[in-house]
Automatic annotation (TrEMBL):
It is a multi-pass membrane protein. Its main location: membrane. One of its GO terms (molecular function) is kinase activity. It catalyses: ATP + protein L-histidine = ADP + protein N-phospho-L-histidine. Its EC number is 2.7.13.3. It comes from the Bacteria. This is histidine kinase. The chain crosses the membrane at residues 380-397, 409-437, 457-478. Signal peptide: none annotated.
Length: 848
């Protein structure tokens, strides 16, 4: 069973006739014998649309209740069970009622397609997920129901249902779209003429782009190389020179004259990397192209005219814009130039425009090979062998064997040796010196600079040619070796950057220090500004060089974004280094963005935590605080009632309930205030030397007598703590332990000294807490297990840990051997305290 086919009827706005077109298509298929059913269609009370539903089988919708209303939804299971050939599903971007199998209707459609059922559906352009911001800027309305663009792109067919904005407004006015009471509001708001025109343009452009993609795929699959002028595509050939901006603007003006014109700027780089344009100029030209709505492309090719024509034909371009050559007249001896070659080979299907500019014939460097990078020592050795070697060889041959027959081979060997050592220029020097010596000493007539035998002349020419050829090979090999080493270094650097991204390492200063070390600079800084005219600020810096306040003040600057630049001081870098530097600049911008996103995420988490605390506080106020208040109010009202004569026993019981409610209310309010103080950072402990055996007994005032057993030796060292905070923390921990301890089993509070700390352990024999829940019991408003609401708001342990940490201590939970829970409060011994006590107002004490 294959996958079903999806056909989407796309419209620019409600009311253009998408559902009508879908139903008409269903009738046409049904007449041809296709099994079509209406899975879900909304006719919105439009008579002509409702009439088209007659004659088609309809699957009853599934009714779901939501917020007191019964809403219809597509019965997906019924459609799958019916298994028609074609199912009609209206409103692809619709959000299903909670309780449905899928959250979105397009997910239901995916299930139908996976089951082999063809689907006809509808959607408006404003529901595309990628166009949400654009639609909101046009209409002022943010669409909540969206469909991913990829779902629509995967459709087998997309039919544009179009209608002129004026015609749609007439339909609205006649009541054919909305009910009469909604027409005036719709016409004056969403359905304004400008809104409809902009939405229509979005729909047309989206469909045109999809058609263009299909055309490109067809041309590629059928290997169509001829240009089909379906729309104007203008390719701009850039050299990285200053004339590029003139060419781009000229191409943009040409594109504006044609319907749907498109500008594609392309820079052809040589494959060997021996020549390169100014990276800064190319960045500026790229930004200009993108600002004008075009695209920038970087293509590698040794034959620039052929690569440019191949690119133009590959994108189905109709015109090419080139600048007049900047070469001087004498430089045309090397060839006709790129412009003339492209115009000659373009053929009848491509128009070539040669645009004049201010830099015509002002000169440009021809592509020449760079130095062999053989090193100074090898170059000096090459010159020594190439120049001094032939002279010494001539002297040696004249002194030892004047009639030696293979003198030319010896001189040639020296020339080859000079080429192997020093490259091209020492080999040329050796060939010249050697040929002169051969001519003077060994070529008849001897001791003259003339050559009488043509064979000897040919031999000398071959001698020089062999030397130059060998030197060229050596020079080329040296350049290739240098390029390979450089590319390896670049690949290592790029691998480092990629590894940073994968590992999530986002230290801006570390990255800038790596930039400085890699390129041997004095300093590296990332500069940014808010707008084009705003002052520059430093986002990060590494090194000890002079501070840079503007990119213009640096020795090297590379754009890192719209309003960011990477600035380095120390030396001027060659163009070949700027390529890698641009990758560092882009990574630095990403690192800065990540850092700011993390800061925003931290702030958001803090705000969320604050909101959670406030929400929980409100919940506590709404229930846990009102409960004791209600009890107090009821008891007081009963005592003040004149209709009842209360006995002394009843009066005492009511007074006891009032006192119990007041104590409970006082305890809850104290914890709430303590928690709010902890989260607002207003808890400032007054650290002093105190005795644990004096504070702990004071914390037991809120627990029943006999419920706690104390084991606190008087010989314990004094601790550095705040007496009030320690008493409050111990009271909360002990009260919590007593609450969960079995009846008749006292809670043990024991203290002991360990090295430079004192531990106070509160041991109960209650049900205990699982390991996975030990961390959660210290979170605010958390009650473990099935503790009832009356057990408190879950702040006691959170406040206790907060106070312990404020005093530089810890509070942890662990299992009690034999069952139960042990809370361990660890404090620093007074002798181990390093900082001086900070004088501060003692925090307000709450009665225990």
């Amino acid at each position: 069973m294959g996958r079903g086919k999806l056909r989407i009827h796309l419209g620019a706005a409600p009311g253009v006739g998408k559902t009508y077109a879908m139903l008409s298509e269903a009738h046409r298929r049904a007449e041809r014998g296709t099994d079509c059913v209406v899975a879900f269609v909304e006719h919105h009370g439009r008579p002509r649309t409702e009439a088209l539903l007659h004659g088609l089988e309809r699957i009853p919708p599934r009714e779901l209740e939501h917020r007191g209303r019964v809403l219809p939804e597509m019965d997906l299971d019924a459609v799958l069970a019916r298994r028609p050939q074609v199912a009609l599903v209206d409103e692809l971007a619709h959000t299903n009622v909670p309780g449905s199998r899928n959250a979105k209707r397009w997910q239901d459609v995916e299930e139908l397609l996976a089951a082999g059922i063809d689907v006809l559906s509808t959607v408006n352009i404003q529901h595309f997920e990628s166009l949400g911001d654009v639609v909101e800027s046009i209409t002022g309305v943010r669409e909540r129901e969206t469909v991913p663009d990829e779902v629509v792109r995967r459709a087998d067919q997309i039919e544009l249902v179009d209608m002129a904005p004026e015609a749609l407004r007439r339909r609205m006015a006649h009541g054919n779209v909305y009910q009469p009471d909604k027409v005036d509001a719709a016409l004056s708001n969403y359905f304004r003429l400008g809104n409809l025109t902009a939405l229509r343009e979005l729909a047309l452009l989206w469909v045109a782009d999809r058609v263009d993609a299909h055309l490109q795929r067809y041309r590629s699959e059928h290997e169509v190389s001829a240009i089909w002028g379906s729309r104007e595509r203008i390719v701009v050939g850039l050299t990285g020179g200053p004339e590029g901006r003139t060419l781009i603007r000229r191409a943009a003006r040409l594109a504006e004259k044609g319907a749907g014109g498109e500008v594609l700027a392309v820079y052809i780089a040589r494959g060997d990397g021996l020549t390169a344009a100014s990276p800064k100029e190319l960045v500026e030209q790229r930004a200009l192209v993108e600002d004008l709505g075009g695209t920038f492309h970087h293509v590698v090719g040794d034959d620039v005219p052929a690569a440019l024509l191949a690119f133009a034909r590959g994108v189905n371009a109709t015109q090419i814009v080139l600048g007049s050559s900047r070469r001087k007249t004498w430089q045309y001896v090397f060839g006709p130039g790129v412009g003339a070659t492209v115009a000659r080979d373009s053929g009848p299907d491509l128009d070539v425009h040669i645009v004049t500019h201010e830099a015509i014939a002002k000169g440009r460097g021809l592509p020449v090979a760079r130095g062999a990078r053989l090193g100074r020592s090898r170059t000096v050795a090459g010159w020594a062998v190439g120049v001094a070697g032939p002279v010494l060889l001539a002297v040696l041959i004249s002194a030892v064997n004047p009639g030696f027959a293979n003198d030319m081979l010896l001189f040639l060997a020296l020339t080859v040796a000079a080429a192997l050592l020093g490259g091209l220029w020492p080999a040329l020097g050796s060939a010249v010196v050697g040929s002169l010596l051969l001519n003077y000493f060994y070529t008849p007539p001897l001791h003259t600079w003339t050559v009488s035998d043509p064979k000897n002349l040919v031999a000398i020419v071959v001698f020089v040619a062999v030397g130059v050829a060998v030197a060229s090979v050596v020079d080329l090999a040296a350049r290739r070796t240098h390029q390979a080493a450089r590319l390896r270094a670049e690949s290592e650097i790029l691998s480092y950057l990629a590894g940073n991204v994968l590992r999530g390492e986002t230290g801006l200063e570390d990255l800038l220090e790596r930039v400085r070390e890699t390129f041997g600079m004095e300093s590296a800084a990332l500069l940014e500004r808010a707008a084009d005219v705003a002052p520059w600020t430093c986002a990060g810096r590494a090194g000890r060089g002079r501070p840079v306040e503007r990119p213009e003040d640096a020795d090297v600057d590379v754009p890192a974004g719209d309003h960011m630049a990477l600035a380095l001081t120390g030396r001027v870098l060659p163009a070949e280094d700027r390529r890698v530097l641009a990758a560092f600049a882009a990574q630095a911008a990403v690192v800065l963005d990540h850092r700011r996103l993390r800061e925003e995420a931290d702030r958001a988490r803090a705000l969320a935590e604050g909101n959670r605390i406030r929400t929980a506080l409100l919940a506590a106020v709404s229930h846990d605080l009102r409960t004791p208040l209600a009890g107090i109010k009821a008891a007081v009202s009963s005592l003040r009632s004149e209709d009842v004569d209360w006995s002394p026993e009843d009066t005492a019981e009511l007074l006891a309930s009032i006192e119990e409610g007041a104590d409970r209310l006082d305890h809850l309010v104290g914890n709430l205030l303590d928690m709010s103080r902890l989260h607002t950072g207003t808890v400032t402990p007054l650290i002093r030397e105190i005795d644990v055996d004096e504070v702990v007994p004071m914390a037991l005032g809120g627990v029943p007598e006999g419920s706690v057993a104390l084991d606190v030796p008087e010989t314990l060292p004094m601790v550095a703590a705040d007496a009030g905070l320690l008493e409050r923390a111990m009271a909360n921990v002990v009260e919590n332990a007593v609450k969960y301890s079995p009846p008749g089993v006292p809670v043990l509070v024991a203290a002991s000294a360990h090295a430079d700390r004192v531990e106070v352990r509160v041991v109960d024999r209650g049900p205990g807490v699982p390991d996975e829940a030990k961390g959660r019991i210290f979170e605010p408003f958390q009650r473990h297990g099935d503790a009832p609401r009356g057990a408190g708001v879950g702040l006691g342990l959170a406040v206790a840990r907060g106070f312990a940490e404020a005093m530089g201590g810890t509070l942890d939970a662990e299992d009690t051997p034999g069952g139960g829970l042990t809370m361990t409060l660890t404090l620093r011994a007074a002798a181990a305290e390093c900082p001086e006590p900070v004088p501060a107002a003692e925090p307000e004490r709450q009665p225990s």
